[in-house]
Each structure stands twice: as C-alpha cells, then as structure tokens.
Write a structure and sequence with these properties.
Number of helices: 10
Strand order of the largest sheet: 5-4-3-2-1-10-11-12
Number of domains: 2
Bound molecules: magnesium ion
Radius of gyration: 17 Å
Strand content: 15-25%
Largest sheet: 8 strands, mixed
CATH class of the largest domain: Alpha Beta
Length: 237
C-alpha cells in the first residue's frame, strides 16, 4: 500500500503511543510506501527528518503541491515539476499581492507559491480577485494560512501527477489530512482519512464522501484507525 499523508496535525499529530506504533509499522513494513504531502517547504521537512526518527518517505510533495522531490536524490520529479513551474507567473505575484489589505507575508523561501497569514482584517475578496487575474488559485487553511498557487495546482493534483509516473494500483492508496488544504486529496477519489481534531470545515466538506473515513483518533491514531477500517489495508497492520 501507499500512504500519502499531510504532516502537521496528521502524521506528526496524535498521542505518543499512536505515533510510535505507526512509525514502527512504517520502519518495519517495507511494503508500505510513504509520501509526505505538506504545506511546509522542503528545507523545513529535511530539518524535521534530520532531527527526528521519523520514517523516511520516498517522495515529498511540499508547498501545498507546488514542489515535488525524490528524497533519496533530492531531485525534482520531472516532468511534474516543470509542468507546475510553467503555470507560475513568477515574482510579480508577490508584488501584485502587496495591494491586498491585511496580508502578512510568510518569511519562507518559496519558488512556485506565495504564502501569507491572514486574519479577520484581511481583504480576502481582493486577494481572490488578484489571484484570479494572475491565473492563480488561492487556498485558505486552518483559519490563518493563505496561499497563492499556480492555477489548478494543489496537493491532490500533484499527488495524482506523481502517482501517474509511479503507476500504482488505485485501491492501494490511502490519503490522510486534517485541514482545508488537504481537501483536494479526498477529491481525487482515493481512500482517505480525515483524522480526529481536524478543521471543522474539512469535516463538513468530506461528510458525504463514502470513500473517506472521519476518524475519532487524532493524527497518527486516525491513520491507524483507517488502516483497520478499510479492508484493503488491514493486512498491513
Ligand atoms: Mg495539517
């Protein structure tokens, strides 16, 4: 099977016992492939892997889908990455977004996205209009993160593009997340788990999806719960 999981609040969330059990499983069962699908940048994920005993994924989709890296070689995955780069308008996204009232720019080095913090003072409608005029998408998440991404690029899109190259059977894929920037992973139709303590809007938006389990347990516990729930993953526990 392949587990494509968000990091913060999902793979990195839950009780210490659940995390230990999930990580142990992934360390010892080489039949489970792992992909991280995160809003973090690659530098932040590499630091995390250095500092912890986390299982190492084969691929890392970072920047809410805007970059995809093969971890053993640290190479960008082609042609997926070039296709994303071709959709990105470039540096003038940041310049143009300066017009939006109430946006705080995130100080992270980024290539094919622009990230901000927002709050109730932020002029979201003007941000949305500017994004659209640049043929970009705007993604709001966790009530505080605002991302501008190349049009049509998101976690679900890039995961699908990557899986096309890997040619894996559809029914052996489990996606996991906890906030609104994960919704496109469920929209792919892959089996999925919305872990416990997820963003309320994500829980609401996935409530009618029969291929998605809304787990009770938070973080890693929710992933384990889903592996027990869906018959095709049970043998991997
Ligand atoms: Mg998360």
């Amino acid at each position: 099977m392949l587990l494509a999981t968000d990091l913060d609040g999902t793979f990195l969330g839950g009780t210490p016992e659940d995390k230990e059990r999930l990580y142990h499983l992934l360390h010892h069962n080489k039949e489970i492939q792992l992909i991280f699908v995160t809003g973090r940048g690659i530098r932040s994920v590499l630091n995390l892997l250095e500092d912890t005993a986390l299982p190492r994924p084969e691929y890392i989709i970072c920047d809410v889908g805007a970059t995809v890296t093969h971890l053993p070689t640290l190479a960008a995955v082609e042609p997926v990455q070039s296709n994303i780069a071709a959709k990105w308008p470039g540096d003038h996204v940041r310049e143009t977004m300066k017009k939006v009232r109430g946006l705080l720019h995130q100080e992270a080095q980024q290539q094919y996205r622009c990230s901000y913090y927002y709050d109730e003072e932020t002029d979201i409608e003007s941000a949305r209009e500017i994004a659209a005029s640049l043929q970009c998408d705007m993604v709001l998440s966790a009530g505080k993160y605002l991302d501008i991404l190349p049009g049509g690029v998101n976690k679900g899109y890039t995961l699908q593009q990557l899986l096309e190259i890997l040619v894996l059977p559809h029914h052996k894929i489990l996606v996991a997340g906890d906030s609104m920037n994960d919704i496109t992973m469920y929209e792919t139709g892959f089996k999925g788990v919305v872990v416990g303590d997820s963003e309320a809007e994500l829980v609401r938006r996935t409530a009618g999806m029969s291929h998605v389990l809304q787990a009770q347990r938070a973080g890693a516990g929710g992933i384990l719960e889903a592996m027990a729930f869906f018959p095709e993953f049970r043998s991997y526990l």
